[in-house]
Design a protein that fits this description.
This protein is α/β, with parallel strands linked by helices. Helices cover 26% and strands 24% of the residues.
């Protein structure tokens, strides 16, 4: 018996990625893909790579399913849940930021879905607040230190592809503007800072609001690369061992002893991490695909845990190297 899945807000980037993953999932079946703006159209008319893959059409209703993915714009998931009645047994995975800090929504309590942070809690949960893409990349680089109480002030830079801005056309996502260009945005004020701080403080209570983050828009479509710097006196070999031990049982996060590249993770659910140290300054580099490990892939990973199936099911994807 397959897990019956549905998607609300299925016409955007995360909706499209979730469709692709569910269509190829060995233990799940996509029952419906909801989109008010595209209702009645075939999925492949909007997500054009799906031609020949499915004959499903976008709908504007909500059939009963086992798990519902909310791929709505930030702020819309709470409204949607307040205006629609779901079966009490339906699992919900929200891709927006509505429940990452305040997880209460009526009778539903949402758990923060960063697998490497609280895998066992997720296994016992019915409602998941999927982490933000930058938050995922940066936290995966810091969790091992926080667990040991070793975090000091963290200065982070990160660059993201244009898909991180969503499908709606914006001035800063025009091809002619983005090509051969890089620019900062939301310096020190990015919306993912609060969820990062909440997680890290739960592991290291004295950490406080000590992440200083400068995000950049990059000249590519998908992926996130971050570099976090902090002061630490421990030897690099000791730190490397700490990271390897923390992620020893992780299905998708890998600590490498050489420099990493963004292309290692594009089109996969992987996170790769590398460490460099000069004097008492440690730099942690991380790379993920913002639409997969930073969104839809992580959501499927959460679904797998919630339903007690193999964590990697439907997620053994190949990176784009060339």
């Amino acid at each position: 018996m397959k897990i019956k899945a549905g998607i609300i807000g299925a016409a955007g980037y995360t909706g499209g990625e979730t469709i692709r993953l569910l269509l190829g999932h060995p233990f799940a079946e996509l029952i419906f893909a909801n989109s008010k703006s595209q209702a009645g159209k075939y999925l492949y008319e909007i997500h054009r790579d799906l031609v020949g893959e499915t004959q499903l059409r976008f709908c504007d209703d909500t059939p009963k399913v086992d798990v519902l993915f909310l791929c709505l714009s930030h702020g819309e998931s709470r409204v949607w849940l307040s205006e629609n009645t779901l079966d009490a047994n339906t699992f919900v995975i929200d891709m927006g930021n509505d429940f990452r800090l305040d997880g209460q929504c009526g009778d539903r309590e949402f758990v923060y879905g960063l697998v490497e942070y609280q895998r066992d809690v997720i296994r016992m949960s019915q409602n998941i607040a999927n982490p933000g893409c930058f938050a995922t990349a940066i936290q995966l680089g810091l969790l091992p230190l926080a667990q040991q109480g070793l975090l000091s002030e963290v200065y982070t830079t990160g660059v993201t592809g244009s898909t991180g801005a969503g499908q709606k056309l914006q001035e800063t996502s025009h091809f002619s503007w983005r090509l051969n260009n890089i620019s900062p945005y939301k310096t020190l004020t990015h919306q993912h800072l609060d969820e990062m701080q909440k997680t890290l403080v739960s592991l290291q209570p004295n950490f406080g609001k000590n992440i200083y983050f400068t995000p950049w828009r990059g000249d590519f479509a998908r992926g996130i690369f971050t570099s976090s710097m902090l002061t630490i006196t421990h030897d690099l070999k000791e730190i490397y061992h700490l990271y390897k031990e923390y992620y020893a049982e992780s299905a998708f996060t890998f600590v490498l002893d050489k420099n990493i590249d963004l292309k290692q993770v594009v089109n996969t659910n992987k996170c790769v991490i590398s460490l460099e140290k000069e004097g008492d300054k440690l730099v942690i580099h991380t790379a993920i695909d913002n639409l997969l490990k930073g969104a839809s892939g992580q959501a499927i990973q959460n679904m797998n845990l919630m339903f007690g199936i193999e964590e990697t099911a439907g997620l053994k994807l190949k990176s784009i190297v060339y």
